[in-house]
Write a structure and sequence with these properties.
The complex is a heterodimer of chains A (about 110) and B (about 110). Chain A is built from no helices and 11 strands. Chain A is mostly beta strands and about 110 residues long. Chain A starts with a strand and ends with a strand. In chain A, about 40% of the residues are buried. In chain B, the strands form 2 sheets. In chain B, strands 2, 4, 5, 9, 10 and 11 form a 6-stranded mixed beta sheet that branches. Chain B has a 5-stranded antiparallel beta sheet with strand order 1-3-8-7-6, with no helix packed on it. In chain B, strand 7 and strand 8 (about 70-75) form a beta hairpin. Chain B is globular, with a radius of gyration of 13 Å. Classes of the chains: A mainly beta (about 110), B mainly beta (about 110).
Chain lengths: ~110, ~110
């Protein structure tokens, strides 16, 4: 079992650009959540996808969007990047509304 | 809005000593409290999920308690080992996914 995998591991983008991060959930999981961890902070909930639809959303602007595919993998898209979007982006998977969430190692995004 | 506070922010403990740290929350408007261990360059690892007031969990030398009435959870590590060095995150599960504290950074000194 490969667990939750995220790609890429590191990424550098320029202000104003767009970025796509990818996540493959743990085998058997159908729910994917995305979190942003800024320096010195705990992870913050961005949104959750289930059955290819956004089920819950945290306090993030519309520049943050996502998608879930039929194989349950997911993408996080961020448009019009700002310097403040520099952070570690974590993906977590779970089974339905199950209590246990398993995390990937994250994608480190740097916006310059 | 859930608010999660963790203390201390960092902790240095001698190998073999026992230690504990705190997760506090003013509101009990959540369905579960989660503890994660996050080692450098690895994924956060789920340690415990606690759902009931008075719940206690144990996994080897690590245990946790939950008191929803008074708004805190303790994580205990007995006989600390170098492999226990990590950041320990507490999170509340609610309507807005998991709400995390900033974590306690634990360093075990040989």
């Amino acid at each position: 079992d490969a667990g939750v995998t995220q790609s890429p591991t590191h990424l550098i983008k320029t202000r104003g650009q767009q970025v796509t991060l990818r996540c493959s959930p743990k085998s058997g999981h159908d729910t994917v959540s995305w979190y942003q961890q800024a320096l010195g902070q705990g992870p913050q909930f961005i949104f959750q996808y289930y059955e290819e639809e956004e089920r819950q959303r945290g306090n993030f602007p519309d520049r943050f969007s996502g998608h879930q595919f039929p194989n349950y993998s997911s993408e996080l898209n961020v448009n019009a990047l700002l310097l403040g979007d520099s952070a570690l982006y974590l993906c977590a998977s779970s089974l339905g509304r199950g209590l246990w969430a398993f995390f990937g190692q994250g994608t480190r995004l740097t916006v310059v | 809005i859930l608010n999660v506070e963790q203390s201390p922010q960092s902790l240095h403990v001698q190998e073999g000593d026992s230690t504990n740290f705190t997760c506090s929350f003013p509101s009990s408007n959540f369905y579960a409290l989660h503890w994660y261990r996050w080692e450098t360059a690895k994924s956060p690892e789920a340690l415990f999920v606690m759902t009931l007031n008075g719940d206690e969990k144990k996994k080897g030398r690590i245990s946790a308690t939950l008191n929803t009435k008074e708004g805190y959870s303790y994580l205990y590590i007995k006989g600390s080992q170098p492999e226990d060095s990590a950041t320990y995150l507490c999170a509340l599960g609610g309507a807005d996914g998991l709400t995390f504290g900033k974590g306690t950074h634990l360093i075990i000194q040989p």
